[in-house]
Specification:
This protein is of the alpha+beta class. The chain contains nine helices and 17 strands. It is globular.
């Protein structure tokens, strides 16, 4: 009987079923992934940007070992109001300018478990308003985790990440983690986003989940090794939606030196959100942070999930643009989702050279 090495088996599986190969690799690397859970760099932790955690059928979300599939989350609005009664027939999807080979599942995200990373800027610049921000962040956790299968973690960041609370279903434990955060240091925003996405992805699960980072920051980055484009690429590849809450509360249109910094920060936060299917919230003052978080919580329960098989998919590394259109009663709706993905297996450690 002919025998094969583990490498040969994995290589063959990757050729015929990339999604299953990724799952197999993740199982083999489980001990290493557990060590990565606290934000350490892991050049060997490969992620399949084009492949979702696992596919769905029209009746239930389930695993498949044979096909490439994309799981996509999106929001539909009309004049600012969430539309929550769409059917599959109301939407059109294009992947790399082509209709999908097959639509495999469509449902409201209200039925999907949430995996939320709350990422809070703890650099020295937030000293005067930090208590308001902690209060709003804690309230958000109680509003968002409403079911037994929702989970979240809390991370602060300055020059480095500060892991305040690991994944848990307990809002009280998460709130205590927020309160334990202390301020001081520079702002390595993009490193924190990369670490948060890796944390969400390393928490491997058999069921389809919605991965979300909620980032409270002024959008400035003056430390770390990761740049904006790389952070966006990591989030797209990990299929993480980034919601950003700006702390540039006194930004005006007078454009003095301070305002130019705030404008740049807001532009950075907007790009992070728009490119990953999230949203930028810009509260007018620190006391309004809680209201901004409440809007994020509402939107997380108003999204849709669709799973499809891309047409003519080849894992050749090129960028596949995604677009969704939706109509109801003859009116075109506004859609917000991530902009696309790279059709390849990538490593967190090498992303900087691949953008």
């Amino acid at each position: 009987m002919k025998t094969h090495s583990l490498f040969q088996v994995l290589t063959r599986v990757l050729e015929i079923a990339p999604g299953y190969a990724l799952l197999f690799t993740a199982l083999l690397l489980c001990p290493q992934l557990s060590r990565v859970a606290y934000g350490q760099s892991c050049a060997g932790c490969a992620i399949a940007e084009a492949l979702p955690p696992e596919p769905v059928s029209t009746s239930e979300w389930s695993f498949s070992k044979e096909v490439n599939e994309v799981n996509l989350l999106f929001v539909a609005t009309h004049h600012g109001r969430f539309i929550d009664d769409l059917s599959q027939n109301d939407i059109t999807v294009l992947d790399d300018r082509k209709p999908p080979a097959a639509i495999l599942g469509f449902r409201s995200e209200r039925e999907l478990p949430l995996r939320v990373g709350l990422v809070i800027d703890t650099s020295s610049s937030v000293t005067s308003r930090f208590r308001f921000e902690q209060r709003g962040a804690s309230a958000f956790l109680f509003q968002t985790l409403r079911r037994k299968d929702d989970m979240a973690f809390v991370m602060g960041f300055s020059n480095e990440q500060k892991w305040a609370q690991d994944f848990t279903r307990d809002p009280e434990a998460l709130s205590q983690g927020v309160q334990r955060l202390t301020i001081g240091g520079g702002t390595a925003l993009y490193d924190a986003i990369a670490a948060g996405c890796e944390k969400l992805l390393a928490h491997a699960e058999q069921n389809m989940v919605a991965r979300v980072l909620v980032v409270l920051s002024d959008g400035q980055n003056n430390a770390g090794k990761t740049d904006l484009n790389t952070a966006i690429g990591i989030a797209q590849q990990a299929q993480v939606a980034i919601y950003t809450v700006s702390t540039n509360y006194h930004y005006t249109i007078d454009f003095n030196q301070e305002d130019w910094g705030a404008k740049e920060g807001n532009d950075n936060l907007r790009r992070l959100a728009e490119q990953t299917g999230g949203r930028l919230l810009n509260p007018p003052d620190a006391k309004s942070v809680g209201k901004a978080f409440a809007k994020v919580a509402e939107e997380l329960r108003s999204r849709y999930a669709i799973a499809y098989r891309p047409a003519d998919f080849v894992a050749d590394g090129h960028y596949r643009k995604i677009s969704i259109a939706a109509h109801r009663s003859g009116e075109k709706l506004q859609i917000r989702t991530r902009k696309g993905y790279y059709a390849r297996l990538v490593s967190f450690g090498n992303l900087g050279s691949q953008q």
